[in-house]
User: Which sequence fits this backbone?
């Protein structure tokens, strides 16, 4: 029996790396239904992300997330949401019980809980995963992978 019937997480999931995989694995472990807010390509044009011009397409990112979760657990219903207003969507979702976030995105989860309370909803349980540190002692991140890719001219 899973601890939460519905669990959510979100992000760009560009160049799926070990930090993303840990986030997805924790969600799959604790949630019967996993709701993933995957940032759309159109929304990426609106925000200022470093090296955003080389972020993988929505379809590539979606496929990699789906493939990873399928190799980890077949007991989860995966709902990938292509919406530019993830926070408002999550705030109004009645069936979510918990969110899985990284240490770097914990403030976003707190903002979601604030929105939920203003909409008369209960706060979500927030599960914070630890940062994934690379062998060289740096934080694993999509931005770092994009920087490395651009400097070497390779593609992932």
Assistant:
């Amino acid at each position: 029996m899973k601890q939460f019937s519905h669990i959510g997480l979100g992000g760009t999931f560009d160049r799926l790396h070990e930090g993303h995989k840990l986030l997805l694995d924790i969600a799959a472990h604790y949630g019967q239904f996993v709701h993933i807010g995957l940032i759309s390509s159109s929304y990426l044009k609106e925000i200022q992300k470093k090296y955003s011009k080389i972020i993988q397409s929505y379809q590539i990112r979606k496929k990699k997330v789906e493939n990873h979760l399928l190799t980890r657990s077949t007991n989860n219903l995966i709902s990938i949401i292509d919406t530019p207003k993830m926070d408002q969507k999550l705030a109004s979702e009645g069936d979510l019980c918990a969110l899985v976030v990284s240490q770097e995105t914990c403030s976003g989860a707190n903002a979601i809980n604030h929105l939920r309370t203003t909409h008369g909803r209960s706060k979500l349980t927030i599960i914070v995963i630890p940062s994934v540190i690379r062998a060289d002692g740096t934080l694993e991140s999509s931005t770092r992978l994009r920087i490395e890719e651009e400097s070497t001219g390779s593609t992932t």
Remarks:
- The chain has one domain: 4-152.
- The chain has a mean pLDDT of 83.
- The domain at 4-152 is CATH 3.40.50.620 (Rossmann fold).
